[in-house]
């Protein structure tokens, strides 16, 4: 069922501790059980499984439960040992796990959506289960009565969800590339604002309630940090992945962001540095360096008897430039560009060698990653994906060994 990996720890790299195999289809969610050597998984093969580590070092399923529909999302509340599982048919099912994690009892079904559930959050204080789905909606239901309390619809599939437990603000990402901030009430909600910045569908969100930072990952391979608490509209762009960013986790204590992409890439971003905002791209009818017309500037082309040029943009200053004036490429990590991007000639000359020093580390997970979660107190990470494999990693060589201090789970 599961293999224990005996790999020699290497400096500054995640260490693969265990690999769990046994699901017959894509694993959509995997969660580490706090203070236990255990993992809860949900899969498209319609099963929920609880894996416990045996004396042999291998993980074996202590619970194997088959659902009526493929499992698409899951959340687990450890203090009450309640599991909420979203399904492809739109329903959310609640279970209670025994103290020894060998038995799971069905509690109730919530008719939350008309289509696939994409994300679930449980608020024990409000007694709400909040979920998003491919029926283009977010719903919140009462866990005592099982009744629908409220629902809000969007123009496209709702793909991911984060929630501030103190203020009852919900952040919902969708397939149009927008993030909507909602204030949830007992039976209604109000739209606070809409965040736009990605050029692809939002795949994952992470909310840090302490620094009031929102992180979003999308199919445009990029991450954006939104400074919600600063109230000045400050955003930071992070580009280092080569495929869709699938999962995020921000570590408050070390001020690091862990991100995973569908090609197996694992990145750890240093957010404890002074970073620069990427500029807005400027628009112009001619190159802002050599003043040659762009191809749509018919009047200047006619007046100067020259052919129009294609418009590009310098990633450092944002100016509209032609290809000749932006022939150089450079990384610029302080602005989030970890790989080489187009810059104009003058900006290229201004970038020093020390400015190209990376502010992130990149690692290979060696499997397709569709979901990641961390036990920050122990420095552990679990990844899963469409290859039906679950991997457990020791992240302390990458993110530091003193994570247990000052951590309090939400």
TrEMBL record:
It holds the Pfam family FYVE. Residues 281-352 form the FYVE-type domain. It is found in: Early endosome. InterPro entries: WD40/YVTN_repeat-like_dom_sf, WD40_PAC1, WD40_repeat_CS, WD40_repeat_dom_sf, WD40_rpt, WDFY1/WDFY2, WDFY1_FYVE, Znf_FYVE. WD repeats lie at residues 20-51, 195-228, 238-279. The keyword Phosphoprotein does not apply. Keywords: Endosome, Metal-binding, Repeat, WD repeat, Zinc, Zinc-finger. PANTHER family: LD41958P (PTHR46189), WD REPEAT AND FYVE DOMAIN-CONTAINING PROTEIN 1 (PTHR46189:SF2). This is WD repeat and FYVE domain-containing protein 1. It comes from Ceratotherium simum simum (Southern white rhinoceros). The gene is LOC101404090.
